[in-house]
Amino acid sequence: MRLLIIGDLNGQVAIASQIARDNGASVEMKNDIDSALQDLRSGKGADLIMIDVQFDVARLINSLVNERINIPVIGCGLDNDTQRAVQAIKAGAKEYIPLPPDEELIAAVLEAISEETKDVIYSSDAMSKIIYMADQVAPSDASVLITGESGTGKEVLAKYIHSKSRRAGKTMISVNCAAIPENLLESELFGHEKGAFTGAVARRLGKFEEADNSTLLLDEISEMDIRLQAKLLRALQEQEIDRVGGSKPVKVNIRIIATSNRNLQEEVKKGAFREDLFFRLNVINLQVPPLRSRKNEIAHFANYFLKKYAHANGLPERPLTPDALSKLENYNWPGNVRELENTMHRAVLLSVGNEINEAAIVLMSSSADNNSVSNTEDGKPLIGRTVDAVERELILGTLDHCLGNRTHAAKILGISIRTLRNKLVEYKKSAVA
């Protein structure tokens, strides 16, 4: 977790930064917005920005948006600075932390923003074999391709491999290829020079340079446009990149881990993925099995998530009743571990009493075995309804199940975030009409 702090607040931020360090974050402090932006453009990167609300928070956030730097921002200020706190939230800050700093609050915010863990929960033979292979290949620099359905934990496995590698001393850099529009992904990966395109107000280093001497995770690489795949292949072969608008190549030393929820060999046959890039990435292939094929791990995951979200929401830890656990184990989990995590988060919030009972387990399908295709969740028959109507209900229902988290919903549905975004815009337009 890399924290960038802007401001000093008469020493109060220094106290906050020490609390962050005690919670495992690396902290960089800057006195003003311009020097902070210069750091970000130079490739130093950050996972979270904390800014004194006496600064122009709107200017910082607008600069980040205009320069396509995707980092969440939280404001901080003295308790009585309510007006600036409101302005910061309206400007786009994700959170406001009052000072003097509260240790538990800062720790909770850092955990909520980063959501990073190197722990891999497993007990099945299939996952044991995968972890054994991951341990074997982690110390090397070989490219690793992690495949499996959405929500199976591919990114968690990637972080585990990095933590066991010789590059573990540096932060692993991640790029979600499905979440970044095609016309922006090249700049995000390779950086750009000032004036390379409209909005390029200064040189910015991309994720390849930010990941120099570390690991670069290319999440959902199958969503990358085939034209950009050629430039990626050259970067991997030559270990050098060309910034957009640049005049000379830049050497980099990185280890690539890629993930995909699609069968890349099938994508190659369809012409949607380059065969030479597939072979370059597929030096080691780890196939993560779906949760339905390792049901003996459901109880382990469920208890882990119950503790996590009870702590995050300031609630007491409560055990699952036998009926609740049986309901979990008899469900087919089309969204895999991520769907289970969302379900347990919701159960923690909905539960009353001293236990998590069956009523608090709200599943996507009304059928416990998830094999019925005759009805939707609300009991309406599928027969006689249009595909568009059923698709709309499925998408909106999944989004609701994920508590509004579009990235998680897209992964459960097996579509890109771009497709989900377009569908929601379409539904909004039809509602207005």
Question: Can you tell me about this structure?
Answer:
The chain is an alpha/beta fold and 433 residues long. It is 44% helix and 12% strand. It contains 18 helices and twelve strands. The protein has a five-stranded parallel β-sheet, with helices on both faces. Helix 17 crosses helix 18. The longest helix is centred in the C-terminal third of the chain and has 16 residues, at 417-432. The two termini are 45 Å apart. The relative contact order is 0.09. Mean pLDDT is 84; it is low at 366-379.
Keywords for this structure?
Rossmann fold, Helicase, Ruva Protein, domain 3, 3 domains, 5-stranded parallel sheet, 18 helices, 12 strands
Quick description:
It is built from 18 helices and twelve strands. The chain has helices spanning 12-22, 33-41, 57-66, 82-91, 103-114, 125-137, 154-163, 182-190, 207-210, 226-238, 264-270, 275-281, 298-312, 322-329, 336-350, 387-401, 406-413, 417-432, and strands spanning 2-6, 26-30, 48-52, 73-78, 95-99, 144-147, 173-176, 215-219, 240-241, 250-251, 255-260, 284-287.
Give the class-level CATH name of the largest domain.
Answer: Alpha Beta
First CA to last CA: what distance? 45 Å
Low-pLDDT residue intervals, each spanning 5 or more residues? 366-379
Quaternary state of this entry equals single chain
* Count of separate structural domains: 3
Could you spell the SSE succession in H and E letters? Answer: EHEHEHEHEHHEHEHHEHEEEHHEHHHHHH
CATH homologous superfamily title of the largest domain: P-loop containing nucleotide triphosphate hydrolases
Measured by DSSP, the beta-strand proportion falls in 5-15%
Computed CA radius of gyration, to the nearest angstrom? 23 Å
Q: Identify the CATH architecture of the largest domain.
A: 3-Layer(aba) Sandwich
Q: What's the rounded overall pLDDT mean?
A: 84
